[in-house]
Amino acid sequence: MKPTLLVLAAGMGSRYGGLKQMDAVGPNGETIMDYSIYDAIRAGFGKVIFVIRKDFEQAFRNTFANRFGSIIVVDFVFQSIDKVPAGCTYPPGRTKPWGTNHAVMMSAGAIKEPFAVINADDFYGQESFEILCNFLKNVEGKKNQYCMVGYHLGNTLSESGAVSRGICDKDSEGNLVSVVEYTHIERLGGTPVYKDENSKQKQLDSNALVSMNMWGFTPDYFDYSEKSFKEFLAKNGENPKSEFYIPIVVDELIRSKTATVKMLPTTAQWFGVTYSEDKPAVMMKINDLVRKGAYPEKLWK
Questions:
Q1: How far apart (Å, rounded) are the C-alpha atoms in residues 11 and 235?
Q2: For residues 90 and 40, what is the distance between their CA atoms, to the nearest angstrom?
Q3: Which domains does the chain have, with CATH numbers?
Q4: What does the DSSP 8-state code read for residue 175?
Q5: pTM confidence score
Q6: C-beta of residue 2 within 8 angstroms of C-beta of residue 259
């Protein structure tokens, strides 16, 4: 069975100022998601599931199902605040869903095979999908063997400002041990630097591997997620801004030695759109890839 690609696309893009998942960046109106799906298809994925809000459904169906629905199986699941385990409560003042791992949980009934998780508004590159798909094909029918694609820090920095990145540590077998968050990282004289707790600049290794939210799981991950989410809500449910992120569950499983998460290094260039000012640079990079022949000028015939 071919792996499934799960695309997290329920966010509104508040900092960006609109529904950036649908914003055209390619020469024929392609979105970043179009390039991810194109790369996933040629890597060997057999299905794509979008996690969206219910009010996005018609726009997504009209756009994406029509573009590549004849090439790959397309499905949709919906993330909302009220989708919590039976018996769990949350404050009435809550205004948005519970974060990335809550989004993953929305697809529990739709996925029975190994699956990948990506952000809708990040460009990951062809190599990354190939590496990820190969791993997932090899864990068909297995449990507790997950993975994360690790990008070289120098390939993820923004040209327009500072970023935050989670730098990964791995053991001698190449398994993820921990992720340490560094804030205000920027390139200075060709070298990545960050500001420590005293606002002093310190250097980082350009080749350090960082997490860009590109994961691979087997379906047993859903059971662990539900158990962890119940515990999370018991501790943090009354906080209207609390977020249930993928690394929360992954870290629990690593620390308890329940599962391993293989680090899959990639030399691919990552880029994304956080603010509206980022869009011209993303369009320029994609057009450059098209000129070099990495992608056809028109993705979908």
A1: 24
A2: 36
A3: 4-141+211-250+269-291 (3.90.550.10)
A4: B
A5: 0.93
A6: no
Q: How far apart are CA 63 and CA 42, in angstroms?
A: 20
pLDDT tens by residue, the chain, 301 residues? 899 999 999 875 444 344 556 788 999 999 999 999 999 999 999 999 999 999 889 888 888 888 999 999 999 999 999 999 988 888 788 888 999 999 999 999 999 999 999 999 899 999 999 999 999 999 999 999 999 999 999 999 987 778 899 999 999 999 999 998 898 899 988 899 998 878 888 999 999 999 999 999 999 999 999 999 999 999 998 888 899 999 999 999 999 999 999 999 999 999 987 667 788 989 999 999 999 999 999 999 8
Task: In whole angstroms, give the CA distance from residue 138 to residue 147.
Answer: 12
For 93, what's the count of Cα atoms within 13 Å in the CB-facing half-sphere? 6
